[in-house]
Design goal:
about 15% strand; 12 helices; Spore Coat Polysaccharide Biosynthesis Protein SpsA, Chain A; globular; two-stranded antiparallel sheet; single chain; alpha/beta
Length: about 300
């Protein structure tokens, strides 16, 4: 390991420790208010290491958008952890990750999350909320899309509009990247069964699935087709679930993109002045005190 890598690792450990110490304040905030008549389910896949992060994500979002209940695809919470979560979120169903399976989808990589969303979205609007998000202002567009029964996803710098699968495939033709999302996007236009459908280069970290917009057959179909096109060994790589989520939302009957300036992922020196929800993606999460600062400000408002 070179000195720069070691220095970055030490910096990340310092800022993560700082976050863990200061953000324990979320444990002293009141329980959320629910709206059991809404039919809205907030779903997250989470595990013990992310307990504080998850509570911050769930409670800051529920401050503005009150769900009927929460569902956790549980990747390793203890009974004690579950009791803490229930005390704060009040109505929570825990679904063990290993209890969710499919013959046609990869194991892990948050595929169990997408399959659970598909199973539940028949009767409910599902908001998929990553544990590394912080809602810092009223997510007006989200409330509007839920009311209109329109699915939504985060936009990205490379994904600001829904496109045909041919456009998506053509955009990646010159890329030399071996990332699964790029490989899958390149393959879109070569699969006859997907002709005439749509795609968005979004992010599955925060997404909405309208009632009836997808089902398990839809999830398994896209997985089968891509596995056949790319090979099962390639398709099971981390990131294939995000591709599938992007594709499924793009082909929902009603769909919308959240504006990037209001729903950004955090980067150093990025403009967060118009943010309503911020996604602190792994690699950049603890490279500064920004996550801790933003989370603490949101915690004080609870």
């Amino acid at each position: 390991m070179d000195w720069q890598s070691l220095k970055l690792g030490l910096k990340r450990r310092y800022f993560q420790r700082e976050f863990d110490v200061f953000c324990r304040a979320v444990l002293k905030t009141p329980a959320v208010e629910l709206d059991e008549s809404s039919g809205l389910v907030v779903l997250s896949q989470s595990y013990q290491k992310d307990l504080l992060m998850f509570l911050i994500a769930a409670k800051t979002f529920a401050r503005y958008v009150k769900p009927a209940r929460f569902v956790v695809v549980d990747d390793g919470y203890t009974p004690e952890d579950q009791a803490i979560i229930r005390a704060h979120l009040r109505r929570v169903d825990f679904i063990p990750r290993k209890s969710v399976s499919s013959r046609f989808c990869p194991v892990g990589g948050t595929w169990e999350r997408l399959l659970t969303i598909a199973d539940l979205s028949r009767d409910h609007y599902i908001v998929q909320l990553d544990s590394d998000t912080v809602t810092v202002a009223d997510p007006v567009e989200v409330r509007e899309h839920i009311a209109a029964a329109a699915s939504f996803t985060l936009s990205t710098n490379d994904g600001r509009r829904f496109v045909t699968v041919k456009e998506a495939s053509d955009a990646m033709k010159g890329s030399q990247s071996g990332h699964i999302q790029v490989l899958a996007e390149k393959a879109l236009d070569s699969i006859p069964e997907l002709a005439g459908s749509f795609y968005i280069r979004g992010c599955s970290g925060f997404a909405g699935f309208a009632p009836g917009s997808i089902d398990r057959d839809d999830v398994e179909r896209i997985s089968r087709l891509m596995s056949s096109a790319l090979g099962s060994g390639v398709w099971k790589a981390w990131g294939s679930e995000q591709f599938a989520s992007n594709y499924l939302i793009a082909n929902s009957p009603l769909k919308a993109l959240l504006p990037f300036e209001n729903y950004p992922y955090w980067i150093l020196q990025g403009d967060m002045s118009h943010a309503r929800l911020v996604h602190f993606i792994g690699g950049d999460r603890f490279t500064s005190s920004a996550y801790r600062s933003m989370a603490m400000k949101a915690i004080r408002s609870l």
